[in-house]
Design brief:
The structure is a single chain. This protein has 6 helices and 7 strands; from the N terminus they run ββαααβαββαββα. By secondary structure, the protein is of the alpha/beta class. Strands 1-3-2-4-7-5-6 form a 7-stranded mixed beta sheet. The two termini are 24 Å apart. Helix content is 31%, strand content 15%. Helix 5 links the parallel strand 5 and strand 6.
Length: 266
């Protein structure tokens, strides 16, 4: 449920729905105290938010939820990923540490300084990352208790041209990239997503795990609990919006119908 003291919102769906639409990177909001630790001036920060934010993904998830056969639950990050990135590992397991973009970013999408290199991530992890992870874990366990399983559909977008921070940006950049996990993404979930999104961007427009791979699962369940399945949906931004950071276009409605169809299929 929404709580103004928390940096996230859990929006209830149908009581028996196993589906949780997760929107981790759609917000531009940075609390004042966090802004004080960012070295960019206001204009540079706005440009960085244009590049790093998965713009309109919260609206996409909301539109899909409104027309899905059974309303999915939604877990939405109300803060920018420049506060913390809830989908990173909070420790040395995170490969994006190599470019200063672990759970707490110290570099921008263009590998320029975002925070002082000596920034201690612990206060931000304590204030934002861990409460978010705990709440997402509770939301997943709520779906398991109600439906016997949880299906996490992670809603993202990515730029048409690779940005300097990307570690795997040289690969294909299809209109829709489906990110998978070898333990948590069953073939039938991947097939359903390929079918519904192929219907709106063409089956040749669907790719897997390039330029981004994997799917988010809370660490408590990760690699151990097969009741939790997951898929990441990465939508190339030129299919639905003006880049970078511009308004949404008619493609958003088409994609919302496809996402709603996926919710119904699973």
């Amino acid at each position: 449920m929404s709580d103004p003291r928390k940096p996230f919102t859990l929006i209830p769906g149908a009581a028996g729905s196993p589906v949780l639409l997760h929107v981790p990177h759609g917000s531009r909001r940075i609390p004042r105290r966090v802004r004080e630790g960012i070295t960019l001036d206001d204009a540079a920060l706005e440009r960085e938010l244009d590049h790093i934010t998965d713009a309109h993904t919260a609206e996409l998830a909301a539109a899909a939820a409104a027309i899905a056969p059974a309303t999915p639950w939604r877990f939405v990050n109300d803060c920018s990923r420049l506060v913390v990135d809830p989908e990173r590992f909070p420790d040395e397991r995170e490969e994006m540490l190599a470019v200063g973009m672990g759970a707490v970013y110290t570099r921008t999408t263009h590998r320029e300084p975002l925070r002082p290199p000596e920034t201690d991530p612990a206060p931000l992890l304590e204030a934002y990352f861990h409460p978010y992870a705990d709440a997402m874990t509770a939301a997943v366990e709520g779906r398991i208790a109600a439906a016997g399983r949880a299906v996490i559909i992670d809603v993202h977008s990515y730029p048409t041209a690779p940005l300097p921070y990307e570690l795997h940006g040289a690969g294909p950049r299809p209109p829709v990239c489906l990110g998978t996990d070898p333990f948590h993404t069953p073939p039938e979930l991947l097939a359903a997503a390929s079918r519904v999104f192929g219907g709106c961007v063409g089956h040749d427009g669907i790719g897997h795990d390039s330029p981004f791979a994997g799917a988010y699962v809370p660490l408590r369940h990760y690699g151990t609990d097969r009741r939790v399945t997951a898929l990441m949906v990465e939508i190339r931004r030129d299919t639905y919006m003006s880049e970078p950071g511009g308004p949404a276009g008619p493609g958003l409605d088409m994609l919302a119908h496809a996402l709603a169809e996926l919710v119904g299929a699973v």
